[in-house]
Amino acid sequence: MIAGRTGVRQRGRGAVQDLDQLGIVAPVTKWRAECLQTDRIPEYVAAAVHHAMAGAPGVAYLEVPQDVFAASVHPEARPWPTGYADGSRSVPEPTGLRRALDALQEAERPLVVAGSGAFLSGAAEALLGFVECTGIPTTTTSAARGLIDDDHLRCAGGLVHGGIALASADVALVLGSRFNANLLYGGPPLFPPGQRVIQVDVRPENLGGPRRPEVGLTGDIRTTLEALAGSWARPPGALDEWAEKVRQAARASLQTWDAQCDRPSNGVHPGWLARQVAAFAEEQYRSGRGGTFVSDGGDSVVWGIAFSRAHRPGTNLFIGSAMGTLGVGLPFAMAAKAARPDEPVFLFTGDGAFGLSAIELDTAARHRLAVVIVVVNNGGWGDVRHEQRMFYGREADQGAKLSTMRYDLLAEAVGGHGERVVQAPEVRPALERALKAADGGSPAVVDVVTDPEVMSDLMKNLAGLDVM
Amino acid sequence: MIAGRTGVRQRGRGAVQDLDQLGIVAPVTKWRAECLQTDRIPEYVAAAVHHAMAGAPGVAYLEVPQDVFAASVHPEARPWPTGYADGSRSVPEPTGLRRALDALQEAERPLVVAGSGAFLSGAAEALLGFVECTGIPTTTTSAARGLIDDDHLRCAGGLVHGGIALASADVALVLGSRFNANLLYGGPPLFPPGQRVIQVDVRPENLGGPRRPEVGLTGDIRTTLEALAGSWARPPGALDEWAEKVRQAARASLQTWDAQCDRPSNGVHPGWLARQVAAFAEEQYRSGRGGTFVSDGGDSVVWGIAFSRAHRPGTNLFIGSAMGTLGVGLPFAMAAKAARPDEPVFLFTGDGAFGLSAIELDTAARHRLAVVIVVVNNGGWGDVRHEQRMFYGREADQGAKLSTMRYDLLAEAVGGHGERVVQAPEVRPALERALKAADGGSPAVVDVVTDPEVMSDLMKNLAGLDVM
Amino acid sequence: MIAGRTGVRQRGRGAVQDLDQLGIVAPVTKWRAECLQTDRIPEYVAAAVHHAMAGAPGVAYLEVPQDVFAASVHPEARPWPTGYADGSRSVPEPTGLRRALDALQEAERPLVVAGSGAFLSGAAEALLGFVECTGIPTTTTSAARGLIDDDHLRCAGGLVHGGIALASADVALVLGSRFNANLLYGGPPLFPPGQRVIQVDVRPENLGGPRRPEVGLTGDIRTTLEALAGSWARPPGALDEWAEKVRQAARASLQTWDAQCDRPSNGVHPGWLARQVAAFAEEQYRSGRGGTFVSDGGDSVVWGIAFSRAHRPGTNLFIGSAMGTLGVGLPFAMAAKAARPDEPVFLFTGDGAFGLSAIELDTAARHRLAVVIVVVNNGGWGDVRHEQRMFYGREADQGAKLSTMRYDLLAEAVGGHGERVVQAPEVRPALERALKAADGGSPAVVDVVTDPEVMSDLMKNLAGLDVM
Amino acid sequence: MIAGRTGVRQRGRGAVQDLDQLGIVAPVTKWRAECLQTDRIPEYVAAAVHHAMAGAPGVAYLEVPQDVFAASVHPEARPWPTGYADGSRSVPEPTGLRRALDALQEAERPLVVAGSGAFLSGAAEALLGFVECTGIPTTTTSAARGLIDDDHLRCAGGLVHGGIALASADVALVLGSRFNANLLYGGPPLFPPGQRVIQVDVRPENLGGPRRPEVGLTGDIRTTLEALAGSWARPPGALDEWAEKVRQAARASLQTWDAQCDRPSNGVHPGWLARQVAAFAEEQYRSGRGGTFVSDGGDSVVWGIAFSRAHRPGTNLFIGSAMGTLGVGLPFAMAAKAARPDEPVFLFTGDGAFGLSAIELDTAARHRLAVVIVVVNNGGWGDVRHEQRMFYGREADQGAKLSTMRYDLLAEAVGGHGERVVQAPEVRPALERALKAADGGSPAVVDVVTDPEVMSDLMKNLAGLDVM
User: Fold this and answer.
1) Could you tell me how many CB contacts below 8 A there are between chain B and chain C?
2) Is a pLDDT exceeding 70 seen at residue D77?
3) Which chains border D (3 or more CB–CB pairs < 8 Å)?
4) What's the CA gap between C137 and A324, in Å, rounded?
5) What distance in Å separates the CA atoms of residue C132 and residue C115, rounded to the nearest whole number?
6) What is the interface size between A and B, counted as CB pairs within 8 Å?
7) Distance separating the N- and C-terminal Cα atoms of chain B
8) pLDDT averaged over chain A?
9) How far is A188 from chain D (nearest CA, A)?
C-alpha cells in the first residue's frame, strides 16, 4: 500500500491532514516506512514489495510526502544496488521431516487440515500430489478452501463439515494455520486431547501456543509437502476405509445443515437461500464456466460456507478469521472478477456486512467488475441480535436493527442490475437474470428479504464456546 | 468514543479482532485508555467525558474488553470518589489584557477573526457584546461561522469574503485559531507583514508558531471577550467608517464570485448551483424556519462557503481544515438535524466527497434525520483533476474520474426522495419537492449533473500558494 | 532535548542505530518532532522550546538526522516567520474566583497545599503575598517545597508534617497538584470526606479525578494567587489561632520522627544521620551561605524529607512522585550547583538509588559541580526488602541485597573527596571536611554504613495504604 | 525480559511510574505483551520464551502488573494447553540448494562470510564440517567470530583482515548477515560489483536489499550448511592455492595494523596496547585455560578487533553493528564469565564506552564475575573528536573531552583490584597481577593512559565512506 503524506516542507505547521499515519497503521502492517528522498523512491518501493511477499506475506505500507513525490531527480550515474531475490522457500530439516513421516505412516486415522498458509504458499498441486501419494484425507479451511477439490475422494470439504472427522483422527497434519479461534485454539471439539498433532508453518513463531504440537516443522508448505511425498513409503490404498468414513462424516454434517433449511420459517429461510445460490453457482461450474463463491456476514457467512463447494484455489472466499472483519465480501468478489473476468462471481452476504462496503458497487460499475450479489436482507445484525437476546432477554436487541435498505436500488444507482425478492420461488429466476446482467458487464444485486428469526445451529453453539 | 475489545481472557491467542486499537487511535485522539476492571467502568467513563470536554475539547477514546464489560459487580459500599468540576474557564492575566486593549483602542482599522475555538467555548453572545461595545468589525471562519450574524452591520461574513478587509487591517484580533493552513500560516495575502496581531487561545501551546503575535493571550475565548468588553473605553461609533469599508470589501468579494457564476458553462455551473441552493436555504431562514447549511467537497465546498450565509452558531458547517477531510458533510448534516429536528438542513456536496459517507443515508432514513442533499455530480474529483492537469498536462487525470453514480437512486434505495437534475431551470422545483419530502420525514437527494471543466478562481490560486 | 539520528540518506538500510527514537520517547514527552530540512532547524528549535515551556511545562524532544544537521544552507531572503509570544498566563474567570474566595473567607480552618505547579509557575512571591494577606497557613510539597519559608509563621513545612493539619482543615486550597498517589488520591488520611476542596491548575484536564473539588479553577498559579489576594476582604489575624495549631501539629509530627531516631540501632541509624546532615545544612544556611538539600532513595528519601528544611524555592529537592523514579538525586544536585555555584549543595541518598546515576560523579568533577553527597549505605534496597519480608517472610529478600560498594572511593576515582564513616561521632567531622573539599571545587562523598534493619514508620504504613 | 508495572487497580490515577512501558519498548523488541490475569502468567512466560528463541532470536518483553503478580490462583483442574515445539529448523528447498552448490563448485575463489545468524543458529560444528569438506576459506564477523578457529588453515580471521580476500573472491557465501553498514551495504570495497553472491538467512525478509544476491536461500544456517556439505562433490584440495592466498592476505592486513602500532606516540599507543592485551590473552589460551576477549569503544574497539584472536564460538565478543551501541563491553564480559567461570575474560575498552556501564562493576563484584578490564583511557571520545576536527577544524571538539576518571579506583571501590598504568613496560606486569586477582574472585581494572591523538587508519577511512 503506497500512500501520500503532507509534504516535508509543511510538516508540523498545521497543514492539511498532517498526522502520524505510520503510527496509525503500525498495529496492522507487517512493514512500514516513509521515503524521504525522491531518488530513493525506487529503492523503497522494491523494499515494500519484498517485505509484503517474503516469508509469511503481509501488508507493507509505504508513504511518500507530497513534495518528495513531486520533486524530480536525474537517475544517478551509479544506480542503486537494488533488488531482492524473492521466492526463496524453505523445507523442514531432515530429522523433523522424518518424525512427521513416522507419525503419519503409523497413523490409522490421519487427517490433513490445510489453512491459509497452504494457500499463500501456492501449495495446491503439492497438496494434491501428497494426498494421492499418501491417501490421507484432507479438510480445507479459510483461504485454503479449494486447494484440493471438494469433489476429490480424499477431500472432506471445509472444516465446517470436515471437523467431525478431525475429532476422530489419531494424527492431524496442520498446514499453515495457527491454533487460533478458527481452530478452537487447537482444543475440543475439533482437536481431542490425545490426538497427535503435526504442525507446519513458514514462521517458527507460529508453532504451538494454545496447543503444543508433537512435531512442529518450520518450512514453506508447498515445498514441505513435496518433501514429505518424496519420502512416503506406504501405499495410499491402506487408508481407503478411513477416507470413506471421513467422506461419510462430511455428508452427515451436510445433512444436518439441510435439515435446518427445511424447518418452517416466516419468509425466505437464509439457509435455504444459501443452498439455492450455492447450487446455482455449482451449476455454472459444472457447465464449464468456473466461478467464485464469496460468503460474508455474521450468520449469513456460516450458511454460505456450509453450502458452497470449492473446486480450485482462491475460488471459495470468506473472512479469514472466524466471525471476524465483516464487509470484505464485495472487495473479495471484485478482486476475483478482476483476476478471472470471464468467470461468474457470486457474493452471498448479510445485509449488515454488505452495508459496510456496499458503496463500492460504484467502483465495481466503473471498472466493469460485474459480480452477482445476493443480499440476505433480514434488516438487522442477526448474530448480535441473537447474542443480545440470549444474554439480556428478548427485548434487548439494542442497535442491532437495521432499516430495510433496498440494495437492489443501489445497484441501479450505479447503473447495474437490481431485483428485490420476497418469495422463495422468485429466487432462481432472479439469479438467472442477475447472472445474465453480469455477463453483460453490469454488477447485479438480488436483495432477498429473509426471516430475521432464523439463526444457524452452529452460531448458537459458538456463543457457548467462549471463543471470542 | 467507547469501543469494545477482545476479552482479556482471550487476549494474545489469535481471538477475533485482537489488535492494538489503542495504538491505532493514539495519533488522532486527545485522550485514550482501556478499562480493565468492571467496577472501574464508571470511573473511566467519567474520565473520558472530562478529557473530551476540558480545556481544548477533543476526542477521548475508551475501550472496554468484552469480558470486562460482560462481568457483573456489586456496587461497593464505599463509592468511588468520582467526578470532575467541569466548565472551569480562564481569562488572560490583567497585564496581557491591558496590552491587548491598548493595541485595539489605538487601532484605526481593527478586525476580529473568530475561529473554531470561539465556537467551542460558546462565545456567540460574548462576541456580539464585544462587537457592539467596541464597534470592531468581525469575520468568522471554520466552526465559528455564524457566531455573529452575517446580517450584522459589523460582520464581514466568512473569511473567504472578510479576508480582503483583513489584509488592510492594522490590528487583527485572532480568537481561537492557530496560524495553520486555513489562515495561510498567518502570512500574506491574509496577514500583511506589518500588521499587529493579537492572538487568544485556551492552550498557550497554540500561540504563535508560523506567525508571532505581538500579544499572545491564554484564556477561554468567551470569558476573555467578556473581560475585554468590560474594560473597553472607546465609543463604538469611532469605527463606523472602517466598518462600512469592511462591509464594502466583503460585498466586492461576493461580486467576484457572482461573476464567476455567469461565465458560460457546458451544463449546470457548480457556482450558480451553490448560489441557487444558498438562496433557497436563505428563503427558508427568512420565512422563520431557521436552517443549517453544510458544504463539503474539494472545489464544491468552496462554492458552498462562498454563497451560503450564516446567521447563528453551528448552522453553517464545513470541514474545519482548509481543503481537508472530505466526507464529513452527511454526518454533519445528520447531526444538525438531530439537534434541531424542526429546521431544514441543506447539504451542498461534491460527488466524490459525498461518496465517502453516502451509505449513511441508510442511517439518516432509519433515524428519520431527513436532510436535503444537493450533489454536485461532475463525475470526478474536480480539484485533483485540475491539479493533475496543471502539473502534468491535460491528459494526466489518473484516478480522478468517477462513474456517473446516481445518488438520487441511492436515496430511493433507503426509502427516501431522489431526483436527478440536468438543466438549470429544474433546480428550484426539485429543491422545493426535496424540502417537502424532508419535511415529511424522508431524506432527499437532488443529484445535479454539472460542468466538470469549471474550477473556482480561489482553488486555482490556492494551488500556487503552496499551503498543502 | 535535542538528539541526533541516523541520516535520512541511510535510513532503512541497516545503518548504525537506525531505530524509531520518536516511538521510544513518545510515552514520556510532552512534544516531539523530527526536523527533516536543514533550513527549518531554527523553526523546530523554537517550537521545541515553546512547547517545553508553554502552559504546563514538559519535556520536548527534537531530533535532527545526521545529514540534515551536517548540511549547510544559506539564510533565506525572506526569513521564517518564527517565534512565539511566551509567558502568557491566565487566571480563572471571575465567577470561579468568587466561589473560591467565598469558600476561603467562610472557612474556620483553611489550609493551602502548594504543589509542583506552584513552583513551575514561579509563584513564590505571590504565595507569600497571599499568605500574609489572608493569614491562611500553608504546607508545601514536591517541587513547591520552600516556595514559602519553613520558618514563616504560617508555614507548616512539607506535607509529611503539614498533613496532620490538612486532615483537620475545613477548606483546602490545592495549588498545582493532581490528586495522585502523592496526595493519596485526594482521600483520607490527608483529605477527609467532608472537607471542601478548591483546586487550581493551569490545565483543566488535571482538575478532579479521584477527588472531585467543590471549586475547580483553571489558571496559572501565580496570577491566580495575585487575583485572590487582590480581592481578599478579611483580616489575616482572624486565623492566628488556627495557624498556631497548624504549627503545633507540624512540630508534633517532627517529634514522632525524632523519637524514631532515638530507637536503638545496630550501627548508624539512617534517621539520625538524616537529622545530622539536615542540621549541618541548616547551619550553613543560618550562616548566610544559602544552600540546597536534595533527598533520594526508597526509605532514605523519606528521612531526608522529614528532617531537611526549605527556605527558598528550588532549594529542597526530591523525587516529584511519591516513592517514584529513583536516581534523580545526583542530577538534581548537580543542576542546583550549576545554578547557584557559590552555595553548598547536599545530597542525602540511599545507596541503591545513588548507584543508578553515581557514575555521573565523573560529570560533576569534569564541570566542577562540587556537591556534597551523603550515602546511606545499608547494602540493599531497604524498602523493597521490607516489603518482601512483610509479604513473603523474613528470608524472602530476593534481589534486594547490594554489595558493600564504597562510594567514597568512587569519589576519589573522579578526583574528588571521599570518606567512609561507620560510627556516629565521625559524621560531623566528615561533613565538615567534605564541605571544605567541595568549596575547593571537588565533589565529595561521605559514605555512611547504616543499620539495614531500620525502616521508617511512614514507609511501613504506606505499604498498607495500597497507593502503588 | 520480564518487568513489573503499575497495578491494574491503580492504573490511570497518577500512581507511581504509571507509564506506557509497552510503547517505549515496542521499537526495540521482537515481541511484547502484558499479562493481565494471574492464572495466565505461565502461558505468557512460555510465549515470551518461545518468541525470543524461535526463528531469528530477539528480545521478548513481558510485563506483569503488580496486583496481577501479587494475587494467588489455584492451579486449574484442566491445565493450560501450554507449550511450544521449539528448535524447529528449516533448510532451503532443493532447487535453491542446487543453485548454490553449482555456483560454489564452479567458483575459483569462493569465500564464506559467517555472520551473527551463523552463531545464533549454533552452526560451529556444521561450519567446520562444511569448510573441511569443501575447502572453502572463511572469514567470520560479529557474533560469528570464532565459529571457526582463527588457527584453522581455511580461516582468514575476522572481516577486518578477511575483507581483503573477500574483495577478490569470485563467489561469496554470506551466512546470517544482512547487507547492512557492517558489510558496507554489500558494496565495495568488500563486495565488488561483479561478484556472485549467495546469501542464506533464516528470515527471507533479510535477503537482498542494498545488494541483490544471485542466489538467496531461506533456511537455518546450521542445517543449511549440513545440507550443502552433504551434497558436495568436489575435492577440498582444489582450493588449496586460493586458501593460501586468503591466509596471506589476512597476514598482510595484520602487518598494516602492526605497522600502525610502531608509529611514534606521545605515551602508550592504543594499538600497541591492544596487541599486548591480545597477546596476553592468547598466552592464556595456549596454556589451556581457554578465555574470552571482549572489545568495546569507538576507536578502541577497532584495535581490539584487529589484534584479538578467536578460537571458539562466543569467545571473541564486540558490538554487533559497526561502530554502534557503545557500553556493551562489561555486560558481555560478565555474561561470558557467568557462562564459563573457570576461564579468564578480558575486556579491552575505551574509557567513554566503559563509563556507560562501568558502575556495573558493582554487579560483577557482588556476583563474583571476576573479569579483567583494560581501559584505554585517553580522556575523551576519540572517534567523535576525530570527526569533529576533520569537519570543523582542530579546535572544534565540543563535548568530546572526558575527565581523567581513574577506573582503577572504581575497581577498588567495589572491592576489586585496580591499577593505573602510564608507561608501556608496566602493562605486562599489571596484566599478570590483574589476572591473578581475577582468578582469586575479584574483578580487576587496568586503567592505561594512552595517547589521545592516535586514531586507527580504518576509522579515518570509514569517516569518508558515508556508512553511518
Assistant:
1) 127
2) no
3) A, B, C
4) 61
5) 19
6) 154
7) 29
8) 92
9) 11
